[in-house]
């Protein structure tokens, strides 16, 4: 990981973030590795927000810097062939965080999955409709707020009650989701990052 990039992201130093991303990209560093550093920096932004060193304006700024940096990594989004099947994902209702979800979408697409991205603040009924329509082998739910853990739990339960869980695995992801939270939500697996998601989905669909 790049210490300079982590620190610049944490300090919201936009110029240094963009310069360092360009340098690392020119050096041939893998896009996912660069994203890992940006994500680490975002973790520090979150801690500073929690400790009241940063306020909402800084959170908003961090999202803007992250998105600009991701745009520089645009080359990650390449092959859109969908030989590995369909992956439905969205951010659970009452939660509008989408940076991590968008990264997962991009990386899954570039690994041969057709991704149906339902967006943010997605109600349970929309997940259920999408599962009926697209019959995905794996469904991903993003959740960045601990206050939304119960929403995910309710959504997973509704998918099960609709009889749609037998052929579909449910992955959850997002900063605060650890294995204990995943168990509470009754998810099949917790994905810590985009690469984990790809590895798990490939394993599950047998690629
Ligand atoms: C940026 C940010 C925002 C931005 C979001 C912009 C956007 N378009 O997404 C804005 C400013 C809008 C925002 C708002 C809020 N936020 Co906010 N935010 C963050 C911050 C700093 C970074 C999140 C992020 O993008 N990380 C970078 C990405 C790449 O990481 P990631 O999301 O974890 O994704 C990776 C993995 O988790 C995984 N993954 C993610 N999703 C999925 C999904 C699937 C299916 C899979 C398989 C994998 C996967 O793969 C990704 C790539 O590797 C976090 C702090 C943190 N450490 O997470 C706080 C944080 C999540 N926010 C927080 C809070 C409190 C809020 C607000 C309530 C603040 C307020 N008072 O209004 C609001 C809530 C708005 C809402 N209703 O959703 C808290 C949540 C605390 C808690 N206990 O729940 C955090 C943790 C900050 C903190 N420490 O206090 N926020």
From TrEMBL:
Residue span(s) of domain B12-binding: 84-207
PROSITE patterns, A to Z: B12_BINDING (PS51332), B12_BINDING_NTER (PS51337)
GO molecular function list: cobalamin binding; metal ion binding; methionine synthase activity
Signal peptide extent: none
Keywords recorded for this protein, A-Z: Cobalt, Metal-binding
GO biological process: homocysteine metabolic process; tetrahydrofolate metabolic process
Keyword Chloroplast (UniProt): no
GO cellular component, one term: cytosol
B12-binding N-terminal domain mapped to chain residues: 1-85
Pfam families: B12-binding, B12-binding_2
PANTHER family: METHIONINE SYNTHASE
Full protein name: Cobalamin-dependent protein
